[in-house]
């Protein structure tokens, strides 16, 4: 009889990739993503895009660690490069 509550090897590997222990530094590495925008467009609109087209996005950025929203920020220029200024950090105890 197969125990369906057990994770498959593929599911175990996916979970292990989300948190990686680094024994040399004693730290845990988290995957951090900066999500700027989600645009909804029709397939026809996507087909009409050309190199050089400008797509407007908001300056607010959602910051996620291992797919959990941990903060908000805004896009800024830092030494002629894009950066993110933190505007809201969610309570660490929540």
TrEMBL record:
What SUPFAM superfamilies does the entry give? Surface presentation of antigens (SPOA)
The record, for Gene3D superfamilies, names:
SpoA-like
Q: Does the keyword Lipid metabolism apply?
A: no
Q: Which InterPro entries match?
A: FliN-like_C (IPR001543), SpoA-like_sf (IPR036429)
Record flagged with keyword Glycosyltransferase: no
Q: Which residues form the Flagellar motor switch protein FliN-like C-terminal domain?
A: 27-90
Origin superkingdom: Bacteria
What keyword terms does UniProt attach to this protein? Answer: Cell projection, Cilium, Flagellum
Spans through the membrane: none
> Which protein are we looking at?
Flagellar motor switch protein FliN
| Naturally occurring in which organism (per UniProt) | Legionella wadsworthii
* Protein encoded by which gene: fliN
């Amino acid at each position: 009889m197969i125990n369906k509550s057990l994770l498959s090897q593929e599911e175990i590997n996916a979970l292990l990739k989300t948190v990686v222990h680094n024994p040399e530094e004693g730290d845990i590495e988290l995957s951090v993503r900066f999500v700027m925008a989600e645009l909804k467009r029709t397939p026809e609109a996507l087909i009409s895009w050309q190199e050089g087209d400008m797509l407007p996005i908001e300056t607010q950025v959602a910051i996620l660690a291992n797919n959990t929203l941990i903060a908000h920020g805004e896009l800024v220029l830092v030494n002629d490069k894009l950066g993110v200024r933190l505007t809201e950090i969610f309570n660490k105890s929540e």
